[in-house]
Amino acid sequence: MLNLTIFRKILLFLGDLSLFYVSLIITLIIRFGQNLTPQIFSNHLAAFSPLFLVWIFIFLFFELYELNIANLNSSFLARLSFALLLCLMAGVIFFYLFPIFGLTPKTNLVVLTAILWLLIILWRKLALYLFSSYFQNRIAIIGITNESEKLAQILMRNPQLGYKMMELILASDIVELPQKIKESKINTLILAKDLSENPALEKILYQYLSLRVNLLDLAQAYEIILKKIPIGFIDQAWFLENLQEGQKRFYDKTKRILDILLALIFLVLTIPFWLIVPLIIKIGDKGPVFYIQERLGKNLNKIKVAKFRTMKENADCLGDDWSQGKEDMRITKQGRILRYFHIDEIPQIFNILSGKMSFIGPRPESLRNIAFLEKEIPYYHLRHLVKPGITGWAQMNSGYLNTSGEIGNLNEKIRYDFEKVEYDFYYIKNRSFILDLNIFFKSLGLFFKQGR
Question: Domains of the chain, with CATH numbers?
Answer without folding.
Answer: 5-132 (no CATH), 136-226 (3.40.50.2300), 245-448 (no CATH)
